[in-house]
Records
---
Amino acid sequence: MKTEGREQKAESRKQKAENSKQKLTRSLLPAAYCILLTVAPAWAQSRDWEKEWNETLAAAKREGKVVVAGSPDPVMRNEIIPKFMSRFGVPVEFIAGRSSRIVARVRTERSAGIYSIDIYLSGPDTTANTLYGEKLVDPLKPLLILPEVVDPAKWKTGKPWFVDPEESYVLRPFRSVANLLFINPDHVKPEEMRSSKDLLNPKWKGKISTEDPTTTGAGANLASRFLNQLGEEFLKKLYIEQKPVSTRERRQFTDWLARGTQPICLNCREDDVRPLQKEGFKILEIFELADVAGAVNGSPWLLTLANKAPHPGAARLFANWMMSREGLEIYAKGYGSATLRTDVDESFLNPGNIPRPGANYFDDTDWKWVVKGRKETRSRVWKILKSR
Amino acid sequence: MAQAVIEFVEVTKRFGPALAVDRMSFAVAPGEFFTLLGPSGCGKTTTLRLVAGLEEPDEGEILLNGIPIASPKRGIFVPPDKRRMGMVFQSYAIWPHLTVFENVAFPLRVRREPAAAVKERVLGALDLVGLQGLAERGATELSGGQQQRVALARALAYTPAVLLLDEPLSNLDAKLREQMRFELRSLQRRLNLSVLYVTHDQGEAMAMSDRIAVVHRGRPEQVGVAAELYETPASSFVGDFLGRTVMLRGTVKKSAQGSWIDLRNAGGRISLANNRPAQFAEGEEVRILSRPEDIDLLPGGEVGPNQIKAKVEMVAYLGDHLEYSVSAGGRSFVLAAGKKARYPVGAGIRLAFDPARITVLPL
Amino acid sequence: MKMPAASLPFPGLRVRLRLSHLAESFMLVFFAVVMGLPVLFLLWSSLNVAAPGKDAVYSLANWIRGFSDPGTLSALWMSFLLSVVRLIPAMILSVMVAWLIARTDMPGGNTLEFLCWFAYFIPDFPLVLAWILLLDPSFGFLNTLAGVLPFVEGPIFNPYSFWGIVWVHTSTNGIWFKVMLLTPVFRRLGASLEEAARVAGASNLTTLRRITLPVLAPMVLAVAALSLIRGLESFNTELLLGLPAGIYVYATRIYDYTRQEPPAFGEATALGSVFLLVLVVLSYFYWRYLRGKRFIVVTGQAYSTMRVKLGKWRYWALGGCLLYFAVMMILPLSFLLIGSFMRRYGFFNIASPFTAAHWQNLLMDPIFLSSLKNSLIIATATALAGIVLYSTVGYLVASRKSRGAELLDLFCWLPWVVPGILMSLGLLWLFLATPLRSVLYGSVWGIALAMTIKDSPVSTQAFKAAFLQLGPDLEEAARVTGASWGYTYRRILLPLVAPIAATVGLLNFGSALTSISTPVLLYSAQSRPLSILLMEYSFTGELERAAALGLLITLIISAMVLAGRRLGLKLTGS
């Protein structure tokens, strides 16, 4: 039995996707499905999606809950869960943990034949390499039915953006300009930080903080970007000669930034800095340098649907609602990230976070970069940094 | 008397509200075997611990060779390690992680004696207690009697000012106990040790001690040599504790012929000639104590002087003698008698007291 | 047993021997399953290098990768150095404090002991941050204070250093745990052994050094070994203080492998196996040291509660203890308490820095109450199960000379030498593989079982040492009295070790409330404990709320400690 299962798993991804598609078409009103994906007369659409929506809602209520796994997340805990509950009467169970732990747990559960998770909200690495890479997810695209979600006009990308090769599994609703670094202007004048060379100014020796670049995470990701765009020399000078202070604890470098002990922070996070700015700390974001292009990313998460989800109706309901204006707006506000929806209020965002139309950005959540390029670059980074 | 080695002056020790030692005074002479005898809980062990410095007195003074070692009113307290005492604990307190040699050597080593001297004296001490050849044994591999000897050797390894013994024989079997009694006493004589000995066993106390203090409720009720305590106990507690007693009640009568005690119930009287008649007033109720072996059994008949009437209740044949359980004056007691005259159960007899060997105590 | 049971003359005897034999066999099977199997699973998986879901391919690649990393060996060396350097002063100090509390007339001993319990359960993460606030070279409170002195130039303290880590460790988990374990043992030592030494001319200190400590060697050594292994495993402090100074420790490397994406549990297991090696070496020395020695200390007559009289020194001793507690505990703790009321932990110079909002947010959090309930169920179950299970194991290990008992002893160390997250993974696998999975998987009972297992080293060692000191002839005693084995155990031995039982129960209770790495893979939304909530708060940077929750957990444990001690004292009848 086991080998059989493995063989099945070994089947090509495409075939699998087709299989599930077939299954879905059989079970989920083929006509409505086709209509939803093609441009159809408005009246027909509305009638059909409503029927299906109501069925989904009824199924979700029957199933009783939806189980979502992701990073510990105050927005999720404090806002999404109560909102979803009050909107649909379906409780959300949130399994929070570092993604590596979630992965470990899911793998072990699955090997024992247990399927406990419905929806993953996870970072690009985990999503691409584990959830998608190990085929723990189902195609999500056919399940999007809410008109405001499937309506191409509502998306800056012209459609809901599935970033996986099949354009069906991994849904990315965010594209937000990431901060390159933060400075404390009491100690570092903005004009002192114009190009990458300014980072190598001997004045900042020991004054730069970074998340430990020798382990997976934001620190290594940024170092990989530097290596990619500026070369090995720069990497060595910045991470070795400038003696940056490294830590794994985001609270620590955020505090250093605020106090000015390390007034240049390479990996501080927008959502950590914002409360400080609210308290009156003068902290400046720097999105790009003269010779370092700005970058966008898909944080805080990518959404995927677990296969063999125990609460398929509720999962569908949650995914649709999450992609709606209401769902995404909560996250946009909570995290200060720009969504890909056209109808989300962006007035409360830092204008720097909103990608300028037509500008050329490095995309840190780009599928190929995540699956291959970054991994390779990262191991080069580690080799360089550990050879000191 | 020479300068006392240990002297207690009105020493009081309380544990919370309870009085463990109550204004205790006594003195131990050099080379004397002094025993504190009493039932458990009477304060005798606390007294010993006060000497050792394991307890601090609340009042009074303890002197070692005339020098105060504990005196709350003068703010003096010499800690136990500075008192030069040797002590054998009831549990022996043999250190389980050390060998016999190391146990005995410990007091010498903490005094930083040179190694050669340590060895000599430890082997000497082990010799003294008869443990030759066991020096390298683990201390806990020994029998109870051997452990007791190790404890003794440890206490003797250096020359203690006083040897303190806390019921050292109580954990031994009867035969070993008898043997150790003798050995301890001869050792003490040989080394001319001053010993303060604590026990609840009056046989042990009488066999070994120069002087005994019978302790009751934290106070020495009577201090003296064994015979004194036995023959003329100062209280019925002392009398009872040191052996069997026969006790009768009576009334003091005085007339021109002399003083006597009227034992109405037993139908007789006992002359008070030698028993400090002045102490007692006419008509006073008193108790008479006598050791059973000082009472003679006579056949029934007219009671003479110092005789009372009694009745045999039970007879036990014990080979070399007979034991009679008799009742007199409403009390029963057991008396031993030779086999020459035999009295059957129910027979009326007379008991003859020796007026010189009775103790009269106020009621 | 030396004699075949059938040849024994009394039929009742056979039954009793069988019962203790049965208990041993049962425990062996039980621990082999719950501790051995997860470890085997981890080792086996570490050899499987195929991608998940693919056919297994076995090779040593993970092991080679783990150990060929140039940082691994230097990190291992640093770990040993740190552990040993902080172990020695901490052991000396904790022995002194335990002795002062249990064996002397120093006033306030019970309060000090309670404070140790309290301190042990304060979560270390916010406490380390408190020390950073105190010691940081540029803004540290103590450095600022010292700067006022005329002869001081520049900062005198720097927490981001080797000695900084040692210092902060001494504060966060230096002596508390050791004092907690040692005090009840010191308390049960027969007083006459010490008194004999005193009368023999030894000072209090000499007595402690040459009599008390050697006699208590089984427990003192066990505590030292436990601390060494815990020290090797710790990485929170090292991450916060070591990384900025470029100090890497071994546990950090293991942690790194487990949090890689995707997680590299194979390499982590490979590195973790070094702890197994350390365990084997330590237990060999432990066994060799204790071989042939007997530790009959607590006998009916020698048992005495007489305290060593320190005279006027007792106030100095108390003063010293209080000073230590004030500096090592009260100081950072007050910063932590203040921190939970600050708008931003440690920032005093912002407008209106104080707020009660974090406490309000905590208590208003919709999942707080259910988490509290889950935590209390888990902790109570863990405490009770721990007492029942480990008193039996400790008894068997201490009294039986069989191979099985030795094996059992070794099994019980496994949960600590296997890093928490790996053990958790192994247990998750185990729970899912058993028919009991509907009961254990994702439920509070599963977490309670995991926590009970996780605490086995300290629980077993505590009971074992207590039983060892009660004397090795327990089996014989049981026969002589004519009581059944179970009866003797329940009515005679258990009350005698009641203080240890209370200690173990409370320890289990406390760590069940605070542990994060063990439940993290095992909880579900219905069984989420408070510690997971705490982890979520600190993960998302809500440090102030985490501090508030940490304090709250500490308060709950303190209340339990107070109640438990009362119960424990009643059981001993003192």
---
Amino acid sequence: MEEQEDWLYEINAKQPLLAIDFKEIWRYKDLLMLFVRRDIISAYKQTILGPLWYLIQPLFTGIIFTLVFNNIASINTGGAPPFLFNLAGITMWSYFAQCLNNTSNTFASNAGLFAKVYFPRIITPISQAISALFKLSIQLLIFACFYGYFVLKGYALQPDITLWLFPVVLGVLAILGLGLGMLISSLTTKYRDFRILIGFATTLLMYVSAVMYPISEVQNSKTLLEYAWLIELNPIAILIEAFRYMTLQEGIFNWGLLGYCGLLSLAIFFIGLIVFNRTGRNFIDTI
Amino acid sequence: MSDIILKAENISKQYRLGTVGSGTLRDDFKRNWAKLRGMEDPFLKVGAVNDRSQKSTEDYVWALRDINFEVKQGEVLGIIGKNGAGKSTLLKILSRVTAPTTGVIKSRGRIASLLEVGTGFHHELTGRENIYLNGAILGMQKAEITRKLDEIIAFSGCERYIDTPTKRYSSGMTVRLAFAVAAHLEPEILVVDEVLAVGDAEFQKKAIGKMQDISQGEGRTVLFVSHNMASVRSLCSRGILLENGLVKLRGSIHEVVEGYLSIPNNRSTSKKPNYKWLKIAKIALNNSLKSQELYNGEILKFNIEFQLLKEHQELAFCLCLYDESGGLVVALNTYHKNEDFFKLKKGFHNATIVLDKYILNNGFYIVDFFANDFKGNIYFQLENAISFNIVDDNVRRGEYFKKKWNGSVSLLPEVIILK
């Protein structure tokens, strides 16, 4: 008798390290889009202002940052208006933070779903990165509006030629956020400590990510010089700086540093993915 | 021979007992250290058979151990077993919610699992949006859902509320909507847990009917887990009986259900009394000790042989007959009939309790035996003492009415017509 080897798939006790079935993920693309839709629709259901909250958050943060860091602490933002400078930082940072926070909750917040039905688990973090894009695009719109406003007011603002690289910068930021998020969400299933950690770690991370100050400010400061590497090598800081250089021509734009960011993010992403995949197979037993 | 659609080989699943807390990091480390050196996982060796009631000294337990089975195309396989036998774990592995510790499952078709209805419902979304979301989670394509949308809505009976957020639904409506989505799944292999036990009676009927359509009419392969022996029997063709994580029995659904019903159950936790002066030697039905098939036209004679080491004035015997879903059909007690029975002398005795023909309806019965007295003291107790299956001899109702008569008993009425 002929050996039957034409199985559609196998459920195995062991699995290769990086087993990602792209065909399967593609088959679940409808689910991906429905998750995105669900996240966007349900985020501000039964609120009066709805998606307007996406505008209000960065606006107020921008104003506060400008008051505190520029008017009180008088951080120099070069030729760019401080408010716009902060808004650029906040927009990019909040995209990263949203990717990170939402993905780092993947297993904990979807436990009920994951316990009952199978679909490629990677769908959930990807859907988070996509729905965060919705918020980002609204915030970019405000950024553009204020950009126009300041140009009209006589500021000599001009986007740099490197602006076409913006999708790449955004992609690297997303991959980094997803990678870290997946790593943390996997660890959270076993060791709950990481959930507590992530809450204040993101806030602290913001302060070393050059969100409300330029990297040059740190490099020029005498007292902080020995810690400057922390910010110089922080991929988020580099990416935010690159974004500000593209739009406001303020900050550092360095191909080598961007390459470093890209490689580091990819490495973190793949480590996160491997750990996430392995966790996804059994996490329901440990959560 | 390529009609085997699903094959499980040596499936085992190990769980850790106690709290997952201190010690896990150490065990993880040991595990990985062993793996690094290319050795076998040290914790896979230990672990006891999963018997809930026995206290174990091991830290790890096998919820499933070396499960092997095959499912043919179009077959409806019932998986039954007591609580904790490993049914749910097996379902979880089949539906890829969790991975087995060892073994492999090979499948030729896509598996959709219904371990729960309404998985992934988001209460802020409307009924319609939830149909799409739930359908996609269960593995349907968007176009497929759109095609079946009207059918799903009609089946659920929630037309009026379809554009209302599901948080405004009653729980019954949510379940109906969820089941409607699930019922319109068209996977090659469907794995169903006891989701039928939801909704009102009318909806349950509809659900079971739909399940029957799916399994019989459309030739789909279904793996069905339930405690309801009546629905297992009516839906499934073959069965597997799990006990303490092992396959105890496999075969036709009839055999397996009988095997299930004859597992001594733990429904009463009270200590079984055992009095030295009373020795029950034998409890037989129609001269047989084994489970048997009887016609409803036969008289049932329960024969009890026993020995008394002292005289007892008030001893009585009680037979409790349960149907296959565990409902008590009748309790026969000897002191209701023959009060002389109480005054028994020392020595060997042989008592026969007779139940007339044409009283019990078709079906499977299981009998618990008790020796008690007037005051309610129980001197002897034996659960699942006998089991038997009643089939219609087609004498009373003839060939005309072939199906099972409704009701738990099947008496013939006396009819008197006054002219």
---
Amino acid sequence: MSGHVHRDDLGSRLGMWLFLVTEMVLFGGLFIGYSYMRYRYPAEFHHGGMELNATLGVINTLVLLTSSLTVVLSIVAVQRAEKQRAMALLSTTLGLGLTFLVIKGFEWSAKFHHGLYPNSAHLATLPPGEQVFFGLYFTMTGLHGVHVIAGLSVLSVMLWWVATDRIRQDRYIHLENSGLYWHLVDVIWIFLLPLFYLAA
Amino acid sequence: MSGTHATTPEPSYLVDTGTRTGVMAWLTTTDHKRIGLLYLYSMMTFFFVGVGIGLVMRLVQLTTFQKLVTAQTYNAMFTVHGVIMIFLFVVPGLPAIFGNFFLPILIGAKDVSFPRLNLASWYFFIAGAILAVLSLFTGGGAPDTGWTFYAPFSLKTGTNVSLAVFAAFVLGFSSMLTGINFITTIHRMRAPGMHWFRMPLMCWALYSTAWIQLLATPIVAITLLLVILERFFGIGIFDPAKGGDPLLYQHLFWIYSHPAVYIMILPAMGAISEILPTFAKRPIFGYKAIAFSSMSIAGVGSLVWAHHMFTSGMSGMALMIFSLLTMVVAVPSAIKVFNWVSTLYKGSIDFQPPLLFALTFIFLFCIGGLTGVMQGALAINVHIHDTYFIVGHFHYVMFGGTGMALFAALLYWFPKMFGKMYSKKAIYASWFPMFIGFNMLYFGMMILGMMGMPRRYYVHLPQFHTMHVIATVGSWFLVLGLVIFFATLIYATFKGEKAEDNPWGGVTLEWTIPSPPPLENFDVIPTITRGPYHFEQEEHP
Amino acid sequence: MNDTLHSHEAPIEHPGYGTFIGVWLLLLLLTGCLVGLSHVSQTYAVWGLMTLTPLKAGLVFYYFMHLKYEGPVFKIVILVTLGTLLIFFALLFSDVAFR
């Protein structure tokens, strides 16, 4: 309706950052809940953490860190008008993101196989603190997984737009903003790794 | 600046100029003014549904009408009344209606930073509203937990809590997106020369509100999400049977829901700060003090949440800290009240309906605010916790405060929004029943609370009956006043006289453009050279 | 208000591939340290969590998310957010820790 053309890249980035603020607080709420419960049940959380497969957690960290790198490099490539390279880098990110999800899937199914899932008969026999630990584990990694899927969907659109030149050297704000989102997903995982796999 | 529309006038934003016409033109608009009106119409509808439910709840307390509803329905009614009034009316109220309509105009911009996102926020709002309505008729029936959805009852009840909670989640999304839009708009879209301290105070209020929306809403989003996950998968975080802790629910819920109170009241205070200088014909007293008090209310107000939980079994340390912080937050609120009163002092007061409602706001807000400080004291709180005193108190703040300020803002900006003027006599006539009824109803509730009447009870003991009758009769007066008020305004949109561009003699930017404003607000973006409340006669007495 | 177009007129400002690859290597190294610490003892693991994890997140924010190249508004936004979360955390623990 209001037909004026208005372009403000800095404003768009600011808007994106403000959106990321809400994401940070969303997960922040969960982290606060985690600390609250961990303070109440230190021994149970330690025992729960032993059940998790730290190797898979670390591998997934490396996968996500690398996918973050390829996104940021694809922006450099677009800035330098290296379209083919930008597309290759973005595709790598998508591949790594999927790898992350597959590894996560194996991890979850192993837990299900051992009867460690909310409301399971086996979990009900464990001490209350461990039930809460696994409740938090599934909630937080699950919500993070949803964000990974959202990020991958957005990045697929970006790949398409790079291919069709909607994103190019003089106009790449959408790629930058999607990249910001993907990095935030990475940062959240950076915190999840020690909370559940290493220091619990 | 008054010469901006001297040549051929642009068509007003109410005229369809695009390819679409009629309802479709409204539903696909990205014009901030039309979106503001979409919010206005939808919110007023929800408001009257909420009022209707409130009226029936008062009738139930007259024993004669007790048979009207069952106890279970009564539980559902106070839940739905709360959900509608809070999530669909007061939280989005002023920012979504007047923030959308006037923020860009007040800072000299053609629209907000993200117009399409703005429309999306309205659709999220409507989607949330529809889900909330659906939750009443589907699943196990209307939720009966109270609007606070306290665990563990909300985890166990057979009623349709999941959908109602999801509705609140979606509404939170709408609120956050509006917040993102406003912050970016204020940072990026100010007209040349519009420094931070040349912005009208409404903008400061909206800016601080937007920050609370951003920093607090996600917390309630995750909390409500956890309730849904708990109900579907039994993750056990709030469930004491599985080692969870209902107190964690209360903490997380109030980390948002107390700041939400400031989301509700800050824009109301902003509107009052616009209205008073216009009718006192002098600059606002203590501009910076009011601007900074908005920011500090937003800051300190986010740190007082646990005063809702004084009887929940928190640690003594937390009780003391939160009691102290609660007292502290009264300071910036009082700063505002003193500045408003000082603005009126020695002004050449032009008494008009918006000023009457603004003064009503100050009076009722002071009662609401001071009873709030009372409850911040631990010993008193234990006595009146979960009684009608609380109900009376928050209606003074939310309805007497935000509600009256919303009415004042509506009266103030109505001629600008619609280009029509309402009957001032009819508005004065609506004020008397509204004011008398309001005080009978809610002061009556506070007395009942002091006597020991608990909130949310379907029946009451005989000794409370007289006050209940007084309160119920008050509710009839209140509704009578509301009906006259809105009938007057609706009549005016159709048959009102044409309003002047500047009927009140205001000096902020919205009064320099035609009523109703053209599609792009300004022909030429104005250059600002002075502060917002610059009255000539004050400069040369 | 239109200081946005500068970044397009002067592409020289943009950091190259090298910077980011360097940061990535540093991130991998820090992850290695974190894992190593967690094998030493529980105490070390918690210390690693409290120091190395924020450092890693900081590196991602500062370089990958281009915070280094943005104006002060962006940095203030992040600091306000983190500060708010920290205060929420502290106030919540005024309850839990003293119960």
